[in-house]
Amino acid sequence: MSVPRPSRAALLLLLPLLALSAGASDVVELSDADFESGLAERPGLVLVEFFAPWWGHCMRLAPEYEAAATRLKGIVPLVKVDCTANSNTWNKYGVSGYPTLKIFRDGEESGTYDGPRTADGIVSHLKKQAGPASVALSSVADFEKFIGDKDAC
């Protein structure tokens, strides 16, 4: 018994679906050549993943990091640097293990993210970091909205 081959028409119908699934990433990839300028183009808070593509922990983090980038789009940019191809950058920032997640503010390193390696953990932490230190509540409705927000601390 032979397995039927898909028709040309069926394959043509699948091409747009494949194109959608291989869509553009919300994670920005930078290199030694454009790391500094790439951060300068993104003022404020930025999370940078220093990774090695073949390392198991990096492979497990990749879909979580991508999901976090999508959820944080327009709030906090997520960047990645392939350390196997960009040794100047990882050496400059003292990266000694993979993946390493570092927080930058206005182009300057401000800390390391050591929280959960999940989209939810990354999003929660960065929203708290990106949010204002205080919020002016001028009405009862504003107060109720504020305390009803699940991300409020």
UniProtKB/TrEMBL annotation:
Domain Thioredoxin: 9-131
Gene3D superfamilies hit by this protein: Glutaredoxin
Family to which this protein belongs: Belongs to the protein disulfide isomerase family.
Protein name per the record: Protein disulfide-isomerase A3
Keyword RNA-binding: no
Organism placement in taxonomy: Eukaryota, Metazoa, Chordata, Craniata, Vertebrata
Keywords: Disulfide bond, Endoplasmic reticulum, Isomerase, Redox-active center, Repeat, Signal
Catalytic activity: Catalyzes the rearrangement of -S-S- bonds in proteins
